[in-house]
TrEMBL record:
SUPFAM superfamilies: CoA-transferase family III (CaiB/BaiF). This is Putative racemase. One of its GO terms (molecular function) is CoA-transferase activity. InterPro entries: CoA-transferase_III_domain, CoA-Trfase_fam_III, CoA-Trfase_III_dom3_sf, CoA-Trfase_III_dom_1_sf. Gene3D superfamilies: Crotonobetainyl-coa:carnitine coa-transferase, domain 1, formyl-coa transferase, domain 3. Pfam families: CoA_transf_3. Keywords: Transferase. It comes from the Bacteria. It comes from Pseudooceanicola batsensis (strain ATCC BAA-863 / DSM 15984 / KCTC 12145 / HTCC2597) (Oceanicola batsensis). The keyword Hydrolase does not apply.
């Protein structure tokens, strides 16, 4: 049994951050009921990479395993009554609506906690539930830009570069996952439910704990270099460098060892302060020229012999084929009834007694509506009536 077996989660979130957080709870055994519109959640219609799938696109597939789908119209009174009924026995409620929307739909914390005082209510927003930016769109790229993170890499005279991942969405998901678990632990000890507020701006800001402290406490400016140094607060050379047949990443080497490894005696004359900080661009350029003479394999072997931190720069094909990834069981594979064989990242935390597991793939819209409503006490006649009124959708749609 999973750690969260016996817990029920109502996932009313959309896009990436909320569904990803709910999926993590499902991986640990919770019964996650994905509450989505009768036409399907937004992510079903917005495929990343244009990969639409057969019935379920890859974006939705990747963020909604271990869930059951309840398709319901929350703008209808009947739909809101369904949620109020489910909340009576739920443990966690997750939503990431824009500020004010939850109240208009009748699923705000005050309303639902009055029904179930033990409910852990996770509210996820872009910037916070109130304040000057509360109504701004909480989109990953916009938050990366606002967080200051983009201004820590790349060349000083070129536009800031975003991360190649949905970084803010992912860290917000993990923050919400962590908050839900902590609140459940509090409830186990006290019997009290509570509201857990998570916003994307705070999540990506606090992720930069060390960098921002160097700025706020140490007073060191955030200054990019002319060379593509990988971090404004780490001494040169630090970044990616081209070889004759690819790239390597190099991190904080000692200069004498680097000089020996690269047959570049002049590097041995550099000291950490002058070469690493004061002449960062010149140092980066000198190391770039030295590394460009070697193949990736040869260069990495030379650096390893000197105990210097370096490694290959992978693409996704390299990553998936790496033997450590296979050893760790990082990816899971399963057969989906409509999408065929699926290979996707699994759950990254290992538990010796209660491991995460895959119980079901991502559901079709409304696939479990009948099942969920019957378990909540609705009769077949009730369900048929709500379907006729357009308040719910039943089965694959």
């Amino acid at each position: 049994m999973g750690i969260l077996d016996g817990y029920t989660v109502l996932d009313c979130s959309i896009a990436m951050a909320g569904p990803f957080a709910a999926q993590r709870l499902g991986d640990l055994g919770a019964d996650v009921i994905k509450v989505e519109p009768i036409t399907g959640e937004w992510q079903r219609h917005a495929p990343a990479g244009g990969i639409t799938g057969n019935r379920i696109n890859v974006s939705f597939l990747s963020l909604n395993r271990n869930k059951r789908s309840l398709a319901v119209d929350l703008k209808s009174e009947a739909g809101q009554a369904v949620i109020r009924k489910l909340v009576e026995k739920a443990d966690v409620f997750i939503q990431n609506y824009r500020a004010g929307v939850a109240g208009r739909l009748g699923v705000d914390y005050d309303t639902l906690s009055a029904i179930n005082p033990g409910l852990v209510y996770v509210s996820m927003t872009g910037y916070g539930e109130d304040g000057p930016h509360a109504q701004r769109p909480g989109q990953d790229l916009l938050l990366q830009a606002m967080s200051g993170a983009m201004m820590s890499t790349g060349r000083q005279d070129e536009p800031p570069q975003a991360a190649g991942q949905y970084l803010v969405d992912a860290v917000t998901a993990y923050t919400a996952f962590e908050g839900a678990l902590a609140a459940l632990l509090h409830r186990e000890r006290t019997g009290e439910g509570q509201k857990v507020e998570v916003n994307m701006l705070d999540a990506i800001t606090t992720l930069q704990m060390q960098e921002l402290s160097v700025f706020t406490v140490g007073g060191k400016p955030q200054e990019r270099s002319a060379e593509p140094h990988a971090h404004v607060y780490i001494r040169a050379p630090y970044g990616t460098f081209a070889t004759t047949d690819g790239y390597i990443a190099l991190a904080m080497p000692n200069f004498p060892g680097l000089a020996r490894a690269l047959d570049a005696p002049a590097l041995a004359d550099l000291d950490e302060t002058r070469g690493g900080w004061d002449d960062r661009d010149a140092t980066f350029a000198a190391v770039r020229e030295a590394i460009a003479r070697f193949s990736t394999r040869d260069c990495l072997a030379r650096l390893e012999a000197e105990g210097i931190w370096a490694g290959p720069v992978y693409g996704y094909a390299d990553l998936v084929a790496d033997p450590q990834i296979a050893h760790n069981g990082t990816f899971i594979e399963y057969d989906h009834p409509t999408e065929g064989r699926v290979k996707t990242p699994g759950f990254p935390i290992r538990f010796s007694r209660s491991p995460a597991e895959l119980r079901r793939g991502a559901p079709l819209t409304g696939e479990h509506t009948d099942e969920v409503l019957r378990a909540a006490g609705f009769s077949d006649a009730d369900i048929a009536e709500m379907e006729s009124a357009g308040a719910i959708a039943r089965g694959p749609a």
